[in-house]
Amino acid sequence: QAPDSFPPLRNEAAVRVLRGRMKGIQGHCNSCYMDAALFSLFSCTSVLDSMLFKPFPLCDRNVQSILRDEIVNPLRKTGFVRAGSVMHLREQLTEKGQCSSFTNAEKDPEEFLNLIMQQILGIEPLLKLQSGGQKEQDCYCYQIFMDKQEDLVVPDVQQLVERSFLSSDLKLVEIPSCFIIQMPRFGKEYKMFSKIIPSLELDITDLLLDSPRECCVCGDVATLECS
Question: Which of 42, 68, 177, 203 could disulfide-link to 52, CB 3.0 to 4.6 Å?
């Protein structure tokens, strides 16, 4: 355990601490969905560090301390988290949640995020989405859904997000403080893409509802949008 607090890893420090054998979060008993989510959320970014420290109204301080002291801090300090630490968290989630199989079964990452962010820590939803002018939807992460497209062999995240929003007629109601995106590459049976290239920056200009944008013909502020 690492009781002190450590900042997220950046640049050369991230490479030095996280690269090599016995690095990352040790997998055990179908934990890959949780390992990948925790690594993505905390190893190299502080956007969600409020989950570790802030006393939210519904916050379970035991789960919060396990997350902070047994998983995030060791990951940032040494680049390694043992499977027992994640199992400790999974046991707590099983106890606090409505599902008895968090300790042994493979889950959808969205189910894990909803449980820990909403029911256990009491965090407000991170995303506000609107589909086809209907009522706003609040959520914690966005899962990419799209049909197989032959022209996308090795896509990047920017392409997948734009095409998924377009096919679902979705818009972001506001700029999110944190945009968690689940790729169409999960589960044991089916992978839509063999590889996905990470986009180091994400341009959400065309995904925002009622955002002023430039006309691609004349350069003035656009008044119409063609999908």
Answer: 68
Q: Sort strands 127-131 and 181-182 into parallel, antiparallel or unpaired.
A: unpaired
pTM: 0.86
Distance of alpha carbon 12 from alpha carbon 17, whole angstroms: 9
Beta bridge partners of 24: 80
Question: C-alpha angle with apex 112: 56 to 133, nearest 5 degrees?
Answer: 85
Amino acid letter for position 192:
M
Contact 158, 121 (CB under 8 A): no
What average pLDDT score do residues 214-224 get?
90
Strand partners for 181:
142
What lies within 8 Å, CB to CB, of 19 at 6+ separation is none
Per this entry, what is the length of the chain?
227
Q: According to the model, what pLDDT value does residue 61 have?
A: 86
Rounded to the nearest angstrom, the gap between the alpha carbon of residue 77 and the centroid of all alpha carbons in its chain is 21
Q: What is the amino acid identity at position 160?
A: L
pLDDT, one tens digit per residue, over 152-164 is 889 999 999 999 9
Contact 141, 181 (CB under 8 A): yes
Domains, in order of start, for the chain: 11-120 (3.90.70.10), 127-222 (no CATH)
**Neighbouring C-alpha atoms within 13 Å toward the C-beta of 105:** 10
pLDDT for 170 beyond 90: yes
β-bridge pairing 142-143 and 80-81: unpaired
